[in-house]
Design brief:
5-stranded parallel beta sheet, globular, 24% strand, Rossmann fold, 7 strands
């Protein structure tokens, strides 16, 4: 099983990045192969509509690599900070570089971070619509974190909220169980 984690934060110090790395560690403990795509260090150019039907024909090598990473993944974890009431534009652009059914038979976990608990899940709610539009199966569980859920270390942010650590474990269980099921029993092959 291979899970692609896509970080939609381009901040140097990122809560979203820290949370996705925490989830990646949980996946690795379950012996799941992971690929981490950081849109800060591997940015994608603006999506070009002429390649929507076949994004592998895009002349940009980074787009081709990203598309292949999505194709090779059995499931995904998408993470975004809250930007003006929704998810980040760089994550939207990454998804726009994919074809219309790029997530067919792929479970997708969604996580986000906001400055406070009141609005930290807005990116998740908006991402659900986009994931479904490109044929992904959004998990029932989603997690929104707030800045207060982290402590600061010399290496950056570290998830400190014990409840969220437990919820992340449940999210990973749901993702791996559903991914395993869909690998054996694809639902929509047409």
């Amino acid at each position: 099983m291979k899970i692609l984690l896509v970080c939609g934060s381009i901040a140097q110090q990122s809560h979203t990045h820290a949370f996705l790395r925490f989830i990646e560690d949980l996946l690795k403990k379950q012996k799941v192969e992971t690929v981490f795509w950081d849109l800060r260090t591997s940015p994608l150019p603006i999506a070009l509509p002429e390649y929507h039907k076949d994004p592998l024909k895009n002349p940009d090598k980074t787009v081709q690599k990203f598309v292949r990473a999505v194709m090779d993944a059995d499931g995904l974890v998408l993470g975004s900070p809250l930007y003006h009431g929704s998810y980040s534009g760089v994550l939207k652009n990454a998804l726009d570089n994919l074809q219309y059914d790029a997530l067919r038979n792929k479970p997708v976990a969604i996580v986000s971070n906001g400055s406070n608990i009141r609005n930290c899940t807005h990116p998740c709610s908006h991402l659900r619509l986009v994931v479904r539009a490109i044929y992904g199966y959004v998990l029932q569980s989603q997690i929104g974190t707030a800045n207060e859920d982290y402590k600061v270390s010399k290496d950056g942010y570290i998830l400190a909220n014990e409840d969220l650590k437990e919820r992340a474990s449940r999210l990973v269980f749901e993702l791996t169980a559903f991914t395993s099921f869909l690998k054996k029993n694809p639902i929509n092959n047409n």
